[in-house]
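Escalation from tier 1.

The customer reports that the assembly of two entities below gives different structure tokens on two consecutive runs. Tier 1 could not reproduce it. I'm attaching the input and our single run for tier 2 to review.
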Amino acid sequence: MTAGETHQAIEATFRIERARLIAGLARIVRSVDRAEELAQDALVVALSEWPRTGVPDNPGAWLMAVAKRRALDVYRRDRMRERKHQEIARTLEETRDGAAEAIEAALDDDLGDELLGLIFTACHPMLSPEARAALTLKVVGGLTTDEIARAFLSSEAAIAQRIVRAKKAIAKARLTFDVPRGAERAARLPSVLEVIYLIFNEGYAATAGDDLVRPALCLEARRLGRMLAGLMPEDAEVLGLLALMEIQASRQHARTGPEGAFIPLTEQDRARWDHLLIGRGLDALARAEALGGDGPYVLQAALAACHARARRAADTDWPRIAALYDRLRVVAPSPVVDLNRAIAHSMAFGPEAGLRLVDAIADAAVLRDYAPLPAARGDFLFRAGRVAEARAEFEAAATLTRNARERAFLLARADACDGMP
Amino acid sequence: MRVMVFAKTTEDSEKGAPPAPEAFAAMDRFTEELVKAGVFVAAAGLKNSAQAKRIVCEGPRRTVIDGPFAETRELVAGFSIWEVKDMDEAVAWAKRAPNVMPGKSEMEIRPFYEAADLAEFMTPEELSAPRDGERGKLGVA
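Tier 1 run:
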């Protein structure tokens, strides 16, 4: 590395190290807030020194050493008022004067784990999914509060408060920032995966006119997913979520028309699917399946893969999709899964099969005002030649939906029922 | 954004000598770091230009030229695809790549055309017109 590094280049280097730095520091000082401040302090030092010295060979170890030294200074100044501070100071002393190699080795050993520990802490189930998402984006993704606010269509003040509360809750619960092991890990993993998928969907739901920060959430979620898969390569559900996000993201540019109109999967231009992402998704899915994965994310990824593998909509393996929904319904029961299962069965085995399944769930309370239910039923009836009944269903669905484009689409389908035999 | 990072050949790599085992190990460690940071998408190394062929197009004519080719600094020895936030981040990562060749070697970072860039070349109608198969995608992987 050469001297004369620009601030921009130094900040880019810092961004790469930031999450791991905060993770390592948080575990020592037991506070996300303090860890963020110390990391920021280390950046300030780097900005003053690196333009002269060049970026060190191991910038992560360098920044960590600076931050630890700083932490030690602060705690000494506080005169170690509390026993907790004394303990922390001792930990810092132990690592402080070690040779650079020792720090480096420690970083190599623990960094993956520390980052994972930070992710698990930020995604602790005691926090609401929204708080988890905001905190994860801030400390792991490195987004600013303003960026997070814009991404979630919220105000900066509201997001800032959400993050402050989450940090307070973590401090109050005296979380240790360790990676949970065994049964506890299994119990806490779903709340991590849920947050990453929530971040992904928030970005995926963004429309063409939205702030660019919103679609960027998809990338952020996939980065988190890839990170997690890199740190936990033996967990099928982690790989399943990654596969699901990669495959869904592959359709991002094919799913909206020029006016922002939503284009359903079966009508998308498959040439515009991103085959690089599909390849990555199928690869992650294969690894998940090789591990015997059969959880909700692996199954949803397998469903997405059925579409991704079909070069034309007509090539879709609907019987396999129907079978996957049969399984998903057991693993993650929900009325929406039931409805999708009915649609899959109608595609695989004919409209009557779909009607039988949809009629069995029509009374579910959550589906009472759910437009997709009558829309699906209308489609089955239409395909079964019962056009008068189909028309009524499409009209009912049009009344229920709040989306103008969807309403227009449903009314057009209702009109198409006229003049049919 | 996605970038392709090209590693250029050197006189040594063109001789076809495989990198030393330590070099492989260093590359593996670096790739592992990219994977854990969620940046890595794909990568591959290419055989030397002695095993390459060029097809020169001139109007309807096609001429095949067998390697090796002389302009060592311009030849591609391998590539990786990364997903990064911006070019600064790509550069910061590229600087960390181990130099596995003895002597001087070069890397080149090229951003992908992404869908948003296509708007400059295609009308909304073209962008929305369904096409069959996977033909012509203006380089959007």
